[in-house]
Structures are given as C-alpha cells and as structure tokens.
Amino acid sequence: MLKNVLALDDSEEEVGAGETATVLASPAETAADWRARAEIYRLLSGVFVEEPGREFVTALRSPEALAQLAEAGLRFDADFLDAPQDALLEALAIEYTTQFASSGGFPPVESVRLTGRYKQQPNFDAMQTYKRLGFVLQPGRFEVFADQLGIELMFVAELLERGATALEQGDAVTHRRLEKEIKRFWSQHLGRWVRGYSRLIERTAEHSFYREMARFLGGFAAEEIEAMSLRIEDADQARLEVPKDDIRVEFNPNEPVCNGCMTDALSTTLSAPDNVRRLEEMRSLGDLR
Q1: pLDDT tens-digit readout, 27-61
Q2: Residue 147 CB partners (closer than 8 Å, separation 6+)
Q3: Which of 6, 19, 205, 196 is nearest to 113 (CA)?
C-alpha cells in the first residue's frame, strides 16, 4: 500500500518515536529533513486509513524496519512479530473493523471525535483546505471523509513534499507559505484531536500493532506541535464517549411553511373530492399503525 515507507537514507539522522529532526541550516539538508518527516506521516497514514495490506505489513516486519521501529521506541508483542502472515493480516483486519469501523468503536475521524457525528464542520473545513491547495480526494473501497486521520496525515505529508521540492528549486517564498499552511492545518485540525485520540487507542487496542502505532502517533504529534511552536488545546481528551452536538438548521421566518408552500394548482388538486377521500383513508391507516 505504501511503497518504500521506511526507505530513508542511512546517512540521515534517525527519527525516533515522537521526535522531529532539528531544522538544518542549508536548503538541501532542510529539504531532506522535510522528506524524512513526510515519510513518517505516510507511515502513520497507512496505519489508520484502512486495514493494513500484505505489502505494508511485509515491509514493517522486515528486519531493517523492525530495527528502526525498535530504535524509535516501539515494542511489538509476539502477536505482530511471530504470527504467520495470513493469520496476522486477518487479525489486523478484525482489529481495524472492531476498533475503527464498527458500532461501539472509535472511528479515526475528526468530526466524530469532536462533535459525535460524521460530516460536521471539521470535515467541510478540511475539504475546503484541500480544494484551495489543489488536492482532490479519490474514492476508495469505503466512503472517504476529508477529516479521516489517514487523509489528514497524508495531506501534511504532501505539503512537506511540496515544501522540500520548493527548497530544492530555490523557491524560499513557496517553502515559507507551505510551512504556514502546515502550521495552520495542525492548529485547526490535527492538533485539536490527535493527541487525545492516540491515548485512547493506545489504551483500548487489543493488538500490539495498533497499541504501539497509537503511542508512536501521540509522541510524534506532541513533538511536531512543540517544534512548530504551536499552542493548541487537546479537545479530544481521549474520551470513551463523545456527546453528540446539536444539529444546527438555519430557519428563515419569512419562508412559507405547510400550506403556504403549496401552489394554487397543487391546493386545488388535493381539494378534489376523490383525493380528499384518499387522504382521509391514509390518515386512518396511519392511526392504525
């Protein structure tokens, strides 16, 4: 699913759990740092956007990847390290469905975590941000929410890639603009819910893969926020239950309602004797039910 997700140059500084590499002096080194950060965002996106596929799991269980993850502080149990591949894929698919996609689970969706409902203001705001910056959501196996965790992480990864390219091309203005966009997105979206949500999943996950990846996400998020010098309240707070916000409906008192919405022709039709009789019969059936 994610190719070369951990294929970082050995000469680059290792990025540990919850660590963000220091911004370096030269544009070339800063660009390399941004690309390395983008890889971490992609890794975490791959964990939460859907159940892990065979290619993704194979890459993570390679000796090189496991060594890097161990240095980052991740401690997987035998359920991830020793399980046969097919059995592991099935277990992860079940855990993903139970934890993130079923009733009673904890969907990795900003609107759900902050309002208790799907497709609320965070979703629409994220969609507008993607559109403004030229990104288009492609439909997948399931319905795609603009404020789904994997989508939000992948969006930041793409901004980091654009910023790295801008630096390599000597375009400092574009790089600074993208840096501001990343900070804004963290302030308006990721920073408001990812830290609390990661604590919740670390606490409730049954499989060590999701437990450790949630811990990794929480540490990485905290360090990114600190590195960008942002002050953001954690609105998620790792809540097991999120009260549903009231659905706000705009009402125009000048709009006609009920009979006032009828045209003269419709009113005449409904007033015809046969139709009046049918309406009375329908009311009677409704009363019986």
Answers
A1: 999 999 999 999 999 999 999 999 999 999 999 99
A2: 109, 110, 111, 122, 123, 125, 126, 189
A3: 196
Do 281 and 181 lie in one domain? The reply is no
Q: Are residues 209 and 68 in the same domain?
A: yes
Model confidence, pTM: 0.78
Same domain, 41 and 138: yes
Domain residues for 38?
A: 27-227
User: Hey, what are 19's tokens?
Assistant: 């660590």
Spatial distance between the Cα atoms of 113 and 80, rounded to a whole number of angstroms = 28
206 and 262 both lie in a single domain: no
Give pLDDT, residue 248: 59
In this structure, what token pair is assigned to residue 195?
């830290």
- Taking only the tens place, the pLDDT of each residue in 64-86 is 999 999 999 999 999 999 999 99
User: CB count, 10 Å around CB of 230?
Assistant: 13
Q: 202 with 281, same domain?
A: no
Q: Is the pLDDT of residue 112 over 70?
A: yes
In degrees and rounded to multiples of 5, residue 9 shows phi and psi of -65, 135
Q: Tokens 């954690």 appear where?
A: 234
Give whole-number Cα distances, 146 to 107, 111, 138, 168, 231, in Å. Answer: 13, 10, 10, 30, 24
